[in-house]
Design goal:
Elements (H helix, E strand, L loop, with lengths): L1 H12 L2 H14 L21 H14 L3 H6 L3 E4 L16 E4 L4 H4 L3 E9 L3 E10 L2 E10 L3 H18 E4 L9 E4 L5 E2 L1 E3 L5 E4 L6 E7 L2 E3 L7 E9 L2 E10 L8 H19 L1
Parallel strand pairs: 7-12
Antiparallel strand pairs: 1-2, 3-4, 4-5, 6-10, 7-8, 9-14, 11-13, 13-14
Helix pairs in contact: 1-2
């Protein structure tokens, strides 16, 4: 794996240094202020990060590559070289290499399907683990472990147990947002859409009996660009707000023709006039 990382770096960037600079640029894009890479394999003690930033990186990786868990990280063994990666016209050798995952949680923890173990003398035993139960996925990170792989496994197990006991991912019923009146627009109304899926993680004690309210402007002047924020949906547990999700224009609403704009100008004038009266 370390040799493969070096090879990929040289192929993609020309050198390990150039590739590490690409890694640092991506870290900066993700807002990782304390993460710095000097080479891509992870073997150098000069690579630096924190548990929090490694968790952020792992989350970004899984969101960008959702199939990686099934294709790579959940596999308990791997045999190579495989026929499908051999050069054209060459058969794989008769002798194969069989590797067993060093993430023992894959074998012993219900729902665990990744992600990465690591060890060097300077930093000790490290672990980024992820597991999913009942629709809730958690990521935990332990760094600087001592006592060997068994202690690393126990620490990971304890953090996963705590996470599932304390947090729950919910998918509450999402209210249908009402359309917003579009004055002077080519269409009379602007349809609203959720800026993101109403799926979020909350403390387990707040996971039931969620309710919601829609807060949206009643009207808007055309033109309106798709994605313009026009309101939000607030999800509550009791009196506590647990999540706010923006409501945005689902599509562009250009200006209507001159007759539509004149008609709407008159209607809007009298509407506001009578509203004040």
């Amino acid at each position: 794996g370390n040799d493969a990382a070096i090879t990929v770096a040289r192929v993609l960037a020309g050198s390990t240094f150039a590739f590490s600079e690409l890694m640092n640029a991506e870290a900066a894009r993700l807002g990782l202020e304390k993460t710095r890479f000097v080479e891509p394999s992870g073997l150098s003690e000069l690579n630096t990060s924190t548990a929090r930033e490694m968790a952020i990186l792992a989350r970004a990786y899984l969101l960008r590559h959702p199939d990686a868990i099934a294709n790579y990280h959940s596999r308990t063994t791997m045999e190579f070289p495989r026929a499908d990666v051999m050069p054209v016209g060459e058969e794989p050798p008769a002798t194969r290499i069989l590797l067993r995952s060093t993430n023992n949680l894959l074998f012993s923890y219900d729902g665990c399907d990744g992600l990465k173990t690591g060890y060097i003398d300077e930093s000790g035993y490290n672990l980024i683990a992820t597991a999913e139960r009942d629709g809730t996925r958690v990521i935990i990170v332990t760094l600087g472990g001592t006592g060997g792989p068994a202690v690393r496994e126990r620490s990971g197990r304890s953090l996963l147990d705590w996470s599932f006991a304390q947090w729950r991912t919910v998918r509450p019923a999402a209210p249908e947002p009402p359309p917003v009146r579009s004055w002077g627009g080519a269409t009379e109304n602007v349809n609203l859409a959720y800026a993101e899926r109403p799926v979020f993680t909350v403390p387990a004690s707040m996971g039931s009996n969620l309710r919601s309210r829609v807060e949206a402007v009643p009207e808007v002047a055309a033109p309106v660009t798709a994605g313009t924020k026009l309101g939000r949906v607030v999800f509550l547990s009791g009196d506590s707000v647990v999540r706010r999700i923006d409501l945005v224009a689902a599509s562009d609403v250009p200006l209507g023709n001159i007759f539509v704009r004149m008609r709407d100008a008159v209607l809007r004038f009298f509407k506001h006039l009578f509203a004040k009266a």
